[in-house]
């Protein structure tokens, strides 16, 4: 009813991957009560809106929440991910988060779930079904998980004009299209575009019938190197060593990326084009080979307009027709906001604390909230690792992650938690490997000890040189690329009583 007050220790706004990981750890490790609010009807965030053929980029074994496994733990036997840990589909992920809510969080008796609600700047939850309002009160903290809400084509339309009569579809609409096409035009250079290209090829579309408008080339991570399970332990540790060796021996920033590519740590679709983008996208080598089959790649900048007979780009135009199907894959993805403190009085703003690890980072932040009282100490243990956009961010993420991990290594309790964490996986895997009589593993560990210091030191030197050349600031700063405006205002900083208005 209007004016109803809903009070809990924590109010989490956003039931996507980050909000759910936070709620799971807070519920498991404290006796706190939690309210979770989301605009969507089901938990799972952007996965509810994603295209039907979407899958995780990395292994299912390190995604989701700490308390409940995702996927079967199998090694794929067929397809472009064959030989590697399975990748959950979008449908599996949505079902998984619904199970987490229905089988774990709600049965605890300490979680209230408000789907199809928005939260206004005064801390009121407003039903998107009937407009009813509830005043939310956080006795301890508000958790703003909305900044991790990934933008997908189904919810964020094209930023270019589309003339009447032009067929311009989202990837979801593409799967429902039942008319013959004169050709397909993919707009966008990110992972959604790559997935769409693979889907078209898999459904019999000839590579020469696909035009791919790719304004920027991206550096891509090799999925073979991010396999945190026992069959891949040597390969995974060898990749970590190889990254540090590449950095240690690099004579310049371009030389670093040349070495990373030569070691098959980073990849690109077109080896003749220098990447200007890095977003932590992960592909297998088999996927990369498929993507390289598409030769008609347009590099004339971003699309300005699609007309009946032509596509207007920043630096030219190309022909099209009313019988071509154009696929909008150019949404932003995970927005990059300004780096800020994670713990801010009565507000928590979850961010990466390890490179490319949203769910682990959220669970780790919740663990600090559950076990440490001093706010300064908590912030010192989870300095944010920025969301990447450009190749230089590979260095920035690596260095900030190493800085955080060094601090974690000095606390036995955190090491114990990391070893037990399903979402972290690597610490536990490496600890188990230590107990085996394995000369090859011992040799890799010895190499790691030798190269870690020189490798990180050289990374810092390369980053300082790049920052100096661009007039930038400190290692931890994301300065140098323009920061996008936040999509919504911050949540209340402090709510202590039902009569106190939240501060924004």
Task: Give structural notes.
The protein is an alpha/beta fold and 504 residues long. It has 13 helices and 20 strands. It has helices spanning 17-29, 90-105, 171-176, 191-202, 233-249, 253-262, 285-291, 358-371, 375-381, 392-409, 412-420, 426-434, 439-470, and strands at 4-13, 34-37, 111-114, 117-119, 124-127, 133-144, 161-162, 167-169, 183-187, 210-213, 218-222, 266-267, 277-283, 297-298, 303-306, 310-313, 316-319, 324-328, 343-344, 347-348. Strand 1 (4-13), helix 1 (17-29) and strand 2 (34-37) form a beta-alpha-beta unit. The longest helix is centred in the C-terminal third of the chain and has 32 residues, at 439-470. The radius of gyration is 23 Å and the shape is globular. Residues 472-504 have low confidence and may be disordered.
Radius of gyration: 23 Å
How far the N terminus sits from the C terminus, by CA atoms, comes to: 25 Å
Largest beta-sheet details: 8 strands, mixed
- The stretches of 5 or more residues where confidence is low (pLDDT under 50) are 472-504
Q: Counting H and I runs of at least 4 residues, what is the number of helices?
A: 13
The helix/strand class is alpha/beta
**What fraction, in percent, of the residue positions are helical?**
25-40%
The tally of strands reads 20
Overall mean confidence score, pLDDT? 91
What overall geometry do the principal axes of the alpha carbons give?
Answer: globular
Strand content: 15-25%
């Amino acid at each position: 009813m209007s004016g109803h007050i809903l009070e809990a220790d924590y109010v989490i706004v956003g039931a996507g991957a980050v909000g759910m990981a936070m709620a799971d750890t807070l519920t498991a490790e404290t006796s706190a009560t939690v309210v979770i609010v989301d605009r969507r009807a089901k938990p799972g965030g952007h996965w509810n809106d994603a295209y039907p053929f979407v899958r995780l980029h990395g292994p299912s074994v390190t995604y989701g929440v700490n308390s409940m496994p995702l996927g079967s733990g199998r090694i794929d036997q067929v397809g472009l991910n064959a030989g590697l840990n399975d990748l959950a589909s979008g449908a599996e992920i949505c079902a998984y988060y619904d199970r987490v809510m229905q089988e774990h969080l709600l049965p605890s008796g300490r979680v209230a779930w408000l789907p199809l609600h928005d939260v206004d700047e005064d801390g009121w939850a407003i039903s998107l079904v009937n407009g009813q309002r509830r005043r939310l009160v956080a006795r301890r903290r508000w958790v703003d998980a909305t900044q991790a809400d990934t933008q997908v084509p189904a919810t964020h339309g094209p930023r270019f004009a589309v003339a009447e009569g032009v067929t311009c579809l989202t990837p979801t609409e593409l799967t429902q299209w039942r008319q013959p096409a004169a050709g397909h035009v993919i707009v966008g250079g990110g992972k959604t575009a790559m997935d769409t290209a693979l889907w078209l090829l898999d459904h019999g579309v000839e590579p020469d019938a696909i035009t791919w408008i790719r304004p920027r080339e991206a550096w891509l991570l090799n999925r073979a190197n991010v396999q945190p399970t026992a069959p891949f332990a040597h390969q995974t540790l060898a990749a970590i060593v190889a990254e540090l060796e590449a950095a240690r021996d690099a004579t310049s920033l371009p030389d670093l990326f040349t070495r990373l590519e030569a070691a098959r740590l980073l990849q690109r679709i077109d080896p003749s084009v220098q990447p200007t983008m890095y977003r932590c996208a992960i592909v297998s080598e088999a996927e990369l080979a498929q993507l390289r089959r598409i030769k008609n790649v347009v590099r004339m900048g971003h699309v300005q307009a699609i007309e009946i007979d032509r596509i207007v780009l920043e630096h030219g135009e190309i022909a099209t027709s009313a019988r071509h199907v154009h696929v909008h894959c150019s949404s932003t993805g995970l927005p990059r906001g300004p780096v800020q403190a994670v713990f801010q009085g009565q507000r928590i703003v979850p961010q990466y604390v390890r490179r490319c690890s949203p769910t682990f980072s959220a669970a780790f932040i919740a663990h600090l909230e559950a076990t440490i009282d001093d706010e300064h100490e908590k912030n010192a243990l989870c300095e944010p690792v920025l969301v990447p956009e450009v190749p230089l961010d590979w260095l920035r993420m690596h260095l900030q992650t190493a800085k955080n991990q060094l601090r974690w290594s000095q606390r036995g309790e955190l090491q114990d938690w990391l070893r037990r964490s399903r979402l972290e996986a690597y610490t536990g895997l490496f600890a188990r490997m230590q107990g085996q009589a394995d000369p090859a593993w011992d040799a890799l560990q010895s190499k790691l000890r030798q190269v870690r210091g020189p490798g990180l030191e050289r990374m810092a030197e390369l980053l300082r040189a790049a920052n100096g050349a661009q007039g930038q600031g400190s290692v931890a700063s994301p300065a140098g690329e323009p920061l996008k405006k936040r999509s919504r205002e911050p949540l209340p900083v402090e709510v202590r009583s039902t009569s106190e208005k939240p501060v924004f």
